Amino acid sequence: MRLNEDPVAFEAFYRRHVDAVLKFVVRRVSDPHLAADLTADIFLAVLDSADTYVPGRGSEIAWLYGIARNVVSAQYRKATREARATGRLAGRRLMDDDDLTRMEERIDAERQMRSALEAMEGLPEGERAVLELVAIDQLTVTEAAKALGIRQVTARVRLHRARRALEHFTSPSAVYSEGRA
Amino acid sequence: MSDFEDRLLGALKEEITTRKAENRMTTVAPAGRRRWVGLSAAVAGVAAAATAAVVVATGVTGGPAYAVTRGADGGVGVEINAFTDPEGLEADLAGAGIKAVVDYLPQGQICKQPRGTHGGGSGQFSVSIGRQGDGISFKIEKGQVPAGSTLVLTVSKSKDGDDQPPFATTLEIVQGAVSECEPTSMPVPADGGGTTEKQDQGPGFDTGTEQRDEGPSLDSKTG
Predict the structure, then answer these.
(1) Max Cα–Cα distance, chain A, nearest Å
(2) What pTM value is reported for the model?
(3) Which residues of chain B does A89 touch, with a Cβ-Cβ cutoff of 8 Å?
């Protein structure tokens, strides 16, 4: 079953995850147009990476968040901005006024999470990445490790360090939550 | 289909369809019987649009679909035994430092010209296509496909199968962007038009020297 060849399989995948992807994006950007672009970019990247897709819930989520992280990273954004200039599917063009309002509402709802992410900015990249996926995106440590391509034990160590480092911050409680078990 | 999520899904499904169509275009089964167009027709069709192209039709037998080898002199050798997996060949050529666009089309079809701007002065492009064993092979000399240029290989396959001698092959070097392959029928020469059409060939055009040795299919009606 190839996601980039079977529209039915892709639609099922998309419907399972579109909400999570939108949340992932609006926790990281506050511009509704950019959020729409990034959402489209993430699913286009899913099509690009379909040959690495392994069905199965745990690995599917890890796989998707791994892609989403890459897409939202600043470096990727720069590259796709250039690609978009050559006519790649642009999410913002698919939004009407109602969508724009809804996207703004989504962005508003995740304000607390964006603050939490800001609080993590001082952390070393490796630690921050694990904490982000676990505390903000509610992945399990196992899923976060897979998404980041690191060993589970490494993810646990980094998570522990990240939490310790943040203890003196008055951060939203979300930062300290365990996420899904 | 009213909100962003639905429209995005629709756009992505269209993207899937487009990508599939692009893939299919290169692997589609040969089209129905067409008038046999000999080599000179293929030559003329390409020569009219391209300043540097090589057209050849050759015999092919089994073995791996293709092989890309890097020579000690920096040149890259390509040997194709079966006209399948164009993406794989593109990837392997990319691995050898050559950006390439490969399209395999049904017999009698070729990509609409031009695919882009031809670089180099006339006569600069001297790749030779020949036969090695039973496959088609050619060598790209070092620097022949510089950065920003793309090697564009288009094969009109035989209606008898992917591993059969191709109907025609074009090889060109395009500077800058290469347009998508838009399959179109090869021009059919006017009766006895072979010789007049040869006058259209640009100075850089090289029909190769090995072609007279090709299998019987090639000998048919070259005008």
Answers:
(1) 50
(2) 0.48
(3) 11-12, 15
The answer to whether residues A156 and A162 touch, using CB atoms and an 8 Å cutoff, is no
The pLDDT assigned to B87 comes to 77
Average pLDDT rounded to a whole number, residues A65-86 = 72
pLDDT at residue A148 greater than cutoff 70: yes
> For residue A134, what are the CA distances in angstroms to A27, A53, A86, A156, A157?
13, 21, 36, 10, 13
Q: Which of residues 146-165 of A touch B (CB under 8 A)?
A: none
Question: Mean pLDDT of successive 10-residue segments in chain B (223 residues)?
Answer: 84 86 56 40 42 40 68 78 79 80 81 73 48 65 78 79 73 80 69 41 40 38 36
For residue B24, give the chain A residue with the closest CA.
A5
Q: How close B176 gets to chain A, by Cα (Å)?
A: 14
The chain B residue lying nearest A32, using CA atoms, is B4
Q: How far is it, in rounded angstroms, from Cα B154 to Cα B156?
A: 7
DSSP state of A136: I
Which H or E element spans position B65? none
Task: Extract the tokens encoding B80.
Answer: 């194709």
Asked if B53 and B126 count as a contact pair (C-beta separation under 8 A), the reply is no
ipTM rounded to 2 decimals:
0.82
* A 88-107 → B contacts, CB under 8 A: 89, 91, 94-96, 98-99, 102-103
- d(C-alpha A38, C-alpha A77), whole Å: 8
CA distance B106 to chain A (A): 22
How far apart, in whole angstroms, are the C-alpha atoms of residue A135 and residue A146? Answer: 16
**Residue of A126, A147, A145 whose CA lies nearest to A65:** A147
- Please indicate whether, in this complex, the C-beta atoms of A40 and B19 are within 8 angstroms of each other: no
Report the pLDDT value the prediction gives residue B152, as an integer from 0 to 100: 82
Which residues make Cβ contacts (< 8 Å) with residue A36, sequence separation at least 6?
A: A91, A92, A94, A95, A99, A103, B4
Q: Do A89 and B15 touch (CB under 8 A)?
A: yes
**Once rounded to an integer, what is the mean pLDDT over residues A95-104?**
91
pLDDT per residue as tens digits for the range A21-63: 999 999 998 889 989 989 998 999 898 888 888 776 567 888 9
